[in-house]
Amino acid sequence: MMRTRPLKVALLGCGVVGSEVARIMTTHADDLAARIGAPVELAGVAVRRPSRVREGIDPALVTTDATALVKRGDIDVVVEVIGGIEPARTLITTAFEHGASVVSANKALLAQDGAALHAAAGEHGKDLYYEAAVAGAIPLIRPLRESLAGDKINRVMGIVNGTTNFILDKMDSTGAGYQEALDEATALGYAEADPTADVEGFDAAAKAAILAGIAFHTRVRLDDVYREGMTEVTAADFASAKEMGCTIKLLAICERAADGGSVTARVHPAMIPLTHPLASVRGAYNAVFVESDAAGQLMFYGPGAGGAPTASAVLGDLVAVCRNRLSGATGPGESAYAALTVSPMGDVVTRYHISLDVADKPGVLAQVATVFAEHGVSIDTVRQQGRQDGGGEASLVVVTHRASDASLTGTVEALRKLDTVRGVASIMRVEGE
Amino acid sequence: MMRTRPLKVALLGCGVVGSEVARIMTTHADDLAARIGAPVELAGVAVRRPSRVREGIDPALVTTDATALVKRGDIDVVVEVIGGIEPARTLITTAFEHGASVVSANKALLAQDGAALHAAAGEHGKDLYYEAAVAGAIPLIRPLRESLAGDKINRVMGIVNGTTNFILDKMDSTGAGYQEALDEATALGYAEADPTADVEGFDAAAKAAILAGIAFHTRVRLDDVYREGMTEVTAADFASAKEMGCTIKLLAICERAADGGSVTARVHPAMIPLTHPLASVRGAYNAVFVESDAAGQLMFYGPGAGGAPTASAVLGDLVAVCRNRLSGATGPGESAYAALTVSPMGDVVTRYHISLDVADKPGVLAQVATVFAEHGVSIDTVRQQGRQDGGGEASLVVVTHRASDASLTGTVEALRKLDTVRGVASIMRVEGE
């Protein structure tokens, strides 16, 4: 039963993702209509530079006045693919006020103001969908929100930034250093001219905040997410990882504490065993590994970015929101009923791989081991080797049992004060065992 | 805003999955209520043997009269985890007639009678959800039906049977033969006493029919699925696969033809490159690889069977169906609007790895090559080796370029007629390149 009056869609932004959304809406119009139960029509496209030629988009639809577009009153769904905080935030809330539902791909905004946006959507009885905001094309938010709705998620661990995965994969497979791998990523278009948001983990942290919120039914703010970039990962770290049967990935990890009463969210490079499904995620691909009480271990894999993949996620949301509008229903809103405490990084419990430069003389290992013991950090293995360079230095590689981040930090501070410890070459967490 | 009148759930079947569904409904009652917006109550449990002790289930709820239970009229959702065709089919249609929506884990029934069940659901304005019917806990049907609703899926290729993946993985990693690996699977509880449904591909074929229907918006009947089991895969095949940089998996493959006008669905063992994400799926895990126009390559990975994982999928559906009931909406029904032709196996185009036992004398290769050429099957590589056993026999391994199954079948028939070909040791398709 097909309704003939089309649903009207306003597109905010017409860059890489927006133009692909517009293209698919045109080329797959019949398919979309069949799936929704009514045709969808592109009713307006707000852009900053209207002079740019946009193939396949009727110039009469193009406007620079995004505010007027969302205020028109006849718009059913606003698709926001501008990115950034403002004007996206105001446009979205204005859209709700004027009767539209919203599909957004805006991770930064959702991570920072998700609660307020959800509240605005709820107040006006409208939908806010944002599958494209995390892990691009990979259906992830919907499975977490809906398929696992009857389960209890204990951990979400993911490679959610394609740029850094490309760089780390390159370092792993070629032995290249960070800068060399970054240069290649830039040359191939996988890294932006200013790669800070990616390599320093800001992008991944925003996604971690969104994922943690959905997984644990708890508000997790961007500030709650511990963040450590991957610019200091070295070829030597990869060599250490290989000796452990591991590789290194930049991971976003959202965990429920063992007692169930609190959660943590963090982004940092970590060693993971080569046998872990995340270890084989290559190039710019993303993957998210989910552990739950009943379902067990699940993984979702796919392209994390790019115009067409992101547009695919946007269109999936668009179909759902349009179907909701036709039936007069709304999809699941924000779910924060669990209201768990978000604990700081110091409470995180994991294992550590620590490389120390030490004096090559008797008794050093005993000193170092004493410091670990005093801080309650139990050592799993230790490996000591002379540097062979005649400088009287040796390296000591310590792998710990599980310990809190606070204990480890205390241990490292005390180690630095030892005369015999010349330096802490690297500290790397070990995950996924 | 919490409604206080509970939604009533009737559970049909209380075996491994059903008892886990009942357990989670009890232990996670508050969570479920928060996610749904109303409490859910187990209103009745239909079993065959009421005398069996069922921990945690109020004996007053247990009945042997499933028909009376679904006819009660006050049931909101019927959860069918009996399996098999009858009485499940009649109970489900009766449930729709008496006002209930249905969550089912019944792949055999969905594959055989999905269209009729969807029609019955639609006629009564009720939901029919069945995430648990394919790949257990892995959220797959919902992402395909909803997240990728704006995309065009071209291929679904999956490991959808855990028993056979366990056996093949064991053969690959230990060099064991089929029988030895099957015995271990049986001893560990991964294979049933009668493993026919698994090892002959019947189970996977049912899932392939369901997946193809959803992916291509086309009715695909169980009879449309080509099916070949994995009982004839040998240690020698694994040795051949290793030489190709491949492993062997039992795959369910649903493909859109290059011209877009028809689809095929098939289940058979195949070589896939070790670099393919499906190659690293170990043990009894399942994974489904999806290729679409916009999203690109996605993979969904997780446990394909087991009480708790399957219950997780059932509960995700239960939450969705309950939410739909509260809002007066229904989720997406059957989508068969594309109505594509389902082509027979002969139309499938892929590559082949063929091992021939041939006479060890000059001119054999030329004869064999001529037969391939006459049938329009182009040879990629050929490798000839003497048997070293002095019997005057050699083996010839041919890997073809892409060719239709019909051409390959014709080629093999003609090869068998050659005097110099003593036997066709194996034919294995090569996928995922």
UniProtKB/TrEMBL annotation, chains A, B:
Q: What is its EC number?
A: 1.1.1.3
| Coiled-coil blocks | none
Tell me where in this chain the ACT domain is found. 353-429
Required co-factor(s) are: a metal cation
Give the residue range of the signal peptide. Answer: none
* Pfam families (alphabetical): ACT (PF01842), Homoserine_dh (PF00742), NAD_binding_3 (PF03447)
Per UniProt, where does L-homoserine bind? E192
Active site per the UniProt annotation? K207 (proton donor)
Known catalytic reactions: L-homoserine + NAD(+) = L-aspartate 4-semialdehyde + NADH + H(+); L-homoserine + NADP(+) = L-aspartate 4-semialdehyde + NADPH + H(+)
Any one GO BP annotation for this protein: threonine biosynthetic process
The pathway that the record names for this protein is: Amino-acid biosynthesis; L-threonine biosynthesis; L-threonine from L-aspartate: step 3/5; Amino-acid biosynthesis; L-methionine biosynthesis via de novo pathway; L-homoserine from L-aspartate: step 3/3
- Main EC class the enzyme belongs to: oxidoreductase
Q: Which family does the record claim for this protein?
A: Belongs to the homoserine dehydrogenase family.
Function noted in UniProt: Catalyzes the conversion of L-aspartate-beta-semialdehyde (L-Asa) to L-homoserine (L-Hse), the third step in the biosynthesis of threonine and methionine from aspartate.
Write down what this protein is called.
Homoserine dehydrogenase
Q: Which organism is this entry from?
A: Streptomyces phaeofaciens
